[in-house]
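User: Could you walk me through two proteins back to back? I'd like the raw sequence and the structure tokens for each, with a short line separating them so I can tell where one ends and the next begins.

Assistant: Of course. Protein one, sequence then structure:
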Amino acid sequence: MKPEVHHGDGLELLKTRKWDHILTDPDYERQPDASLYREHCPGSVILFCDPTRRPPGPAPDEVLVWLKPPAYKNVSKRCAKMFEEILVYRGGESVFNCLHWSSMTGIFTDGFVTKADHPYAKPPTLIEKLVLMYTDPGDLVYDPFCGSGTVGAACLKHGRKYVGCEIERKYYDMACKAVQ
């Protein structure tokens, strides 16, 4: 199966079939209930989130952390949010592949080597670690908010099947190029 990227509403495409796994970075303002993902995915569901805005629904089985590199001068008169949570909801016979011991702390410090092409991009190395840890080669991974296609590129690189969906045309075009 060749990687697929669809232009449209990723939550609507989510409802059309069962996915082996879901790995995504949803809109933190308009997140669906986490149980919606579970309805359409018996495997691992991995969601990035703002620690002050977890999605409604069941509690995750694991909470991982991405410590973000400082990227801007803080002028908000508040402490900067320098981390994001990665919520892991495990399915039936969940996949968990151990990587090198240094990657198994649940705290990731990956940064970018080049300038990110999307305002909410995640480092490719971080996404690759999650793909390797929570999926097996040949598994189908769905990303309903695929942005510039980082999850798709990681799946392609590591032998996973991939379907992504992006509603914004500019990022849809980037995601298509990322999985070629």
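----
Protein two, same layout:
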Amino acid sequence: MSHKATTIVYLKRRRKDFVSAYLIRLPNRAPRKIDFEFKIGGDSLITMPFRTLLQEEMDNLERTYREALMDADRRDAFDSLLRAWSSEQGAMSYARVPTALDVMLLTAVVDNRRLIEDLFDQIGVMRSQLEKIDGKLEKLLD
């Protein structure tokens, strides 16, 4: 049957409340291991820890997307996003956003906004310095 299935998952119990899932075949993805936690009692609920999801998504993007970027400046920008995502894992784990990638993009937008505001502050300082220089030049020319 393995030649007919598009997805094959092997589950192996590690502890009473902990199971490892080995994704043996998955469309467009390499085989890998994922850890799940089970809620015992009542209705069974399978959840994957957010930090595991986030780390896997970051590793996957670094391995595939970053390596495909042709421009070195874009690779540096992506590395900056990786640092932002790593430093804000706590905030991202509390966000009520459907997927890890969505919350990663939200964090990237917030980080970009911070950088834009820093640039506006720098432009304001440079504008002020230019006005002082312009005023001095006018005095010298008069």
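The chain has a mean pLDDT of 78.

Let me know if you want the two compared in more detail.
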